[in-house]
Amino acid sequence: MHCPFCQHEDTRVIDSRVSDDGATIRRRRECENCSERFNTFETAELKLPVVVKSDGRREPFDERKLRTSFSRALQKRPVASDQVDAAVRGVIDDVRRSGEREMASLRVGELVMRELKKLDQVAYVRFASVYRSFEDVQAFREEIEKLERDLPALETLQLPLLDAAILRKGKG
Questions:
Q1: Is the predicted pLDDT of residue 164 greater than 80, yes or no?
Q2: Number of structural domains the chain divides into
Q3: pLDDT at residue 74 tops 90
Q4: Is the pLDDT of residue 157 over 80?
Q5: What does the mean pLDDT of the chain come to?
Q6: Residues 61 and 123 in one domain
Q7: Contact 25, 74 (CB under 8 A)
Q8: Is 128 inside any structural domain?
Q9: What is the DSSP secondary structure assignment for residue 74, as one 8-state letter?
Q10: Looking at the domain assignment, is residue 164 inside a domain?
Q11: pLDDT tens digits, 127-144
Q12: Same-domain status, 63 and 131
């Protein structure tokens, strides 16, 4: 590794540590020439499948697009960034584990929806409305009703979608 300060070719590893998520190794290095110290991060390069769009186009899997999808759905929602990171990693892990060389964008969208459902119900409905191209209020209503049927399993994971008093009033 070249020194970023003096461009010398030899640097020495002083310390190596595995990151909290276990996916990255942080190395502390020192330049043999100028004695400056710096960090490097090592991650495994994984071959992810090509995403096949609904119009037939194919493009490489792009983690930035995935993160953008999560960010848009979760905009102004009370979800911690480490939870978002874990959800993104979960989708990437599922995509990688599929073993497929190509994956339909619809399948990736379903994986995103699964993770959003665990994180935040409002974000889930936001994403679903775009992903499933809701065209009227009835489509929203049906998705929310489906979400409410799953509510007991989700209640322990996040803040409620609606106040409990409102839910009781609506069902009574």
A1: no
A2: 2
A3: yes
A4: no
A5: 86
A6: yes
A7: no
A8: yes
A9: T
A10: no
A11: 988 877 777 788 778 888
A12: yes
Q: Which of 20, 10, 16 is nearest to 39 (CA)?
A: 16
Where do runs of H (alpha helix) occur along 74-158? 81-97, 105-119, 121-131, 137-149, 151-154
Phi/psi region, residue 99 (left: phi>0; alpha: psi -120 to 50; beta: rest), is left
Indicate the pTM of the whole model.
0.61
Domain that holds residue 54: 50-156
73 and 98 in a single domain? The answer is yes
Provide the token pair at 144. 């929310």
Looking at the fold, whether 69 and 34 belong to one and the same domain comes out as: no
For tokens 């964008």, the residue is 105
Task: Tell me the one-letter amino acid at 164.
Answer: A
For residue 27, the 8-state DSSP code is: E
> CA 2 to CA 38: how far, in whole Å?
11
Same domain, 21 and 89: no
Residue that the structure tokens 């096949």 belong to: 52
Lowest mean pLDDT among 14-28, 30-44, 60-74, 84-98: 14-28
Residues 105 and 78 reside in one and the same domain: yes
Q: Are residues 30 and 65 in the same domain?
A: no
